[in-house]
Amino acid sequence: MKRSIYLASAAFLPLSLVSSVVAGTNEDLASCTAAQGRASADACTRVMNSGRLPDEQRYIGHFNRGMGYHHAGEYVGALADFNEALKLHPRFARGYQARAFLKQDLGAFNGALADLAHVIALSPTDWFGFYYRALILRDRGDYQGAIADLDRAYRLMPDENRIELLRALVLSDEGKIDAARLMINKVIAQGRDDSAGFYARASVAFKEGRLDAASDDLARVLKLGQDVDVAHILLGRVLEARGDTGSAIEHYRRALAEPDRSFEGRSPRKLARERLSVLQRGAEVPPDDGKDK
Question: CA distances (Å), 30 to each of 25, 58, 116, 253, in order?
């Protein structure tokens, strides 16, 4: 079964130093390249301050440190580093892509779309730019714009199943449930990506209020061990709908502890953080009703 690339965020870039390194510096290099949180960001700082990083790679150091800050939720530091990376390398498409997702998290949708316009201009034959822009347009509620960009992405990469699955979820957002389910079942029947397909079908079932069907497909996703973060988020929503707040909290926590690898982009994790905050405060608010925020 073909497994597609995850699309949640820009990937890290490897770094190399100009001279032999001691064990501690090697560890910093590996941590910086992983770009998975504040520890990685601190490692990038040490690498850049070591004097061993070639000038032509400093933009990579800032990029990876920005990714580390972003994962840690330190948006000010992340924005400063992405800005510096792009100042050093103005044609760095991944830098614009990463900054777009950061701006999305900050609610600066226009800025995010402007950065993705740079990505598309720099890589016009690359389907990713259109896919990423569709993610943000969907988050903004511009479903027609999202479908138009998914059409463009599909023309460039017709075999990429996640384009079809995201299109199905946008159709479900528009209330076209039957069309969405038909598209998802077609992907699943072809065996092109069971995990993402089962998750997408669970998402549609949840929108319909078919909680048992959603739970069954989410169990399949967790058994396969892929798309685990969004599976836990959606399972949390199912449990909230059933009134099991304690279990919902646990699944939201487990989701946020997983790597950010959803083909749906940033929105599910944003929702998980919001619901976790609300449930932990014990605020008197309506439960999650299945409608995407």
Answer: 9, 16, 29, 27
